[in-house]
Design goal:
The complex is a heterodimer. Chain A is of the alpha/beta class. In chain A, 42% of the residues lie in helices and 26% in strands. In chain B, α1 runs antiparallel to α2. The C terminus of chain B is likely disordered. Classes of the chains: A alpha/beta, B alpha+beta. At the A-B interface, α1, α2 and α3 of A face α1, α2 and α4 of B.
């Protein structure tokens, strides 16, 4: 399944559908650059509502986006975090770099 | 749609139904698309053991990490002949997964296994692959030397988690 991209204000919402592995991480990295490079979009929301699996490739990709937006004082949000994704985020220490919100609207209101 | 919930209390784990020992041996090309295939194969292999969601997720993640390592690091140059061998074995609920590649090998295994270490930061690798394999399996063994590929052997007992609940539809 392919990831879905949506722009809300100066946020890029990435809906991660299915399994966030090396293959999908590469797709998201390539596509998100078109939205983030040289634009006014400085924040990224990862929507994990339909995510069934995530491994260290997903961690690497999210860390990459974090470095990308941090220079512009942007933030990374994770919403609809289920048990499968939560465990990986916590074990990797990624939870220290991103903000967890319940849903997209809640993340949008924070900033 | 009916639902039956079985509670498994401490001490009952030994009463899990016996499952016939089984083996699966498969070779596939070292391409990113086959990381998913490897996960699906190990999931299907585990189905008769009725693993918990957590056990299944642990094993899938560990297999995904090992196969991804072979695709990215074992074979830095894409070639259709690049091959990964996967061997799955269930012996009395002990699952053993062996993943073999015939690529460039690892010179310094201890360094490669350090959490957050990656030889390919430009590819945004997190360096967590081996750490996840270690965290999610009971045992992990890595055998390699330069230009002789990598063999990963990892094992996990399936069904030992006690006091969890299982849901069957």
């Amino acid at each position: 399944m392919s990831p879905l991209f949506e722009i809300r204000k100066n946020f890029l919402v990435i809906k991660v559908k299915g399994e966030l592995d090396h293959f999908m991480a590469d797709q998201i990295r390539l596509l998100s650059d078109t939205y983030l490079e040289g634009t006014r979009i400085h924040n990224v929301i990862f929507d994990f509502k339909d995510t069934t699996f995530m491994d260290s490739s997903g961690i690497g990709m999210i860390m990459g986006r974090y470095k990308q937006v941090k220079r512009l004082n942007g933030r990374i949000y994770a919403v609809h975090v289920g048990p499968a994704v939560e465990r990986i985020i916590n074990i990797s220490g990624l939870h220290k770099l991103l903000r967890v919100a319940r849903n997209v609207d809640e993340a949008l209101e924070e900033k | 749609m009916g639902q039956l919930v079985f509670w498994r209390n401490e001490g009952e784990a030994a009463e899990l139904p016996p499952v016939k020992d089984n083996r699966l041996s498969v070779d596939f090309p070292a391409i990113a698309e086959n990381e998913q295939l490897a996960r699906m194969l190990v999931s299907a292999f585990l189905t008769p053991l009725d693993p918990t969601m957590e056990e299944l997720s642990d094993v899938k993640t560990a297999v995904s990490e090992a196969v991804t390592n072979a695709v990215i690091h074992g074979y830095p140059k894409a070639d259709e002949r690049n091959k990964i061998h996967m061997f799955l074995e269930n012996r009395n609920r002990l699952l053993t997964v062996t993943i073999v590649d015939y690529g460039v090998g690892i010179e310094d295994i201890a360094l490669a296994m350090e959490p957050m270490y990656t030889s390919k930061p430009e590819l945004e690798r997190s360096g967590m692959g081996f750490a996840f394999m270690k965290a999610f399996m009971d045992t992990l063994e890595v055998k390699s030397s330069k230009s002789e590929g990598v063999t990963i052997v990892m094992s996990k007992v399936i069904g030992e988690e006690k006091g969890d609940n299982r849901e069957h539809e």
